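Hey everyone, long-time lurker, first post.

I ran two proteins through the pipeline my lab uses and got sequence/structure pairs for each. Pasting them in order. The first:
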Amino acid sequence: MLNKTLKTARCTLRRIEPADASCVFDALRAPGFTDGLIGEPPASISEAAQLIESYLDAWETGRRFVFAIIDGNARFTGIVNLFRRDQEGLWSVGFWIVRERWGEGLAGEAARTVIDAAFRELNANVVHAAHVHWNDQSRRVLIKLGMKFVFRREQGILKNGEWVPNLHYEISRAEWDG
């Protein structure tokens, strides 16, 4: 089980809470924000709260750990999460940052911290990530983390009835420690 709070140089990563529902709702409802994310934006704050409750349930089972990224001014800045895959020792990392904070390096800082925790505390052998093919910002974050491209999936995520290809990356424990 992961600690409920992790620290980065500029942020606190804390377990997401029901009180974060309005921040999650506001971020995900911004036009185009979820174009590259699995799933559609919540239709209401109560739907965002239900999503957070599902994250908390998954935390309790040890399958998914979702952290709110809180900046030095105590502002909600985004989400970073780890989720266990079916393959033993394989975890995936995902993240998003509120639009007004893009380009500040917060996604990489948060992802680096949870990847490190995956290897140190969850006994991960490999950490995986994916992004839709056109998302150059996420690609740059993953490459800066030392992740290597492994494959392209043409039927990556389904958006508006159309398949959007996604690109997959991985880093092993040996590469992370090395």
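...and the second, right after it:
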Amino acid sequence: MNLYEKKMENIKENHRNNLTQPKGDWPEMVQRARRFIIIHLFTEKLTVGWMKKKCRINSHNFSAKFARFAGRTPKQFIVYHRVAVAKKLLKSPAFVDLSISEIAYELGFATVSTFSKAFKRKVGMPPGRWRKEHL
């Protein structure tokens, strides 16, 4: 692993480590799902369906239950944290040479379009423009 890759992994790992821990009264399946999401947060194959299958969650109202405890549905939770790390990468001088598409793929987005739409929805402007204003 080169220095650049180490910096990237450090940013991701720091984000994971700084997430608040769930309270003890959270249902076991919500805690299990949250742990799974955090471990696989930057993996492209992370979807709510995959998470539910791997965590053996069959509840039809699981997303609502997750949102009640975590403050967001599982999908919103994933996108929120991926965009938060994207903002760190976009404003970091260490990653100025990293393209928007490289950031998108590094954070687990399947396409640049999906990343750009999610970023704009959460931040209010496209990632390229946000980078220019914050770098």
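Reply from user beta_strand_b:
Welcome! Quick read of the second one: The domain at 3-134 is CATH 1.10.10.60 (Arc Repressor Mutant, subunit A). The chain has a mean pLDDT of 93.
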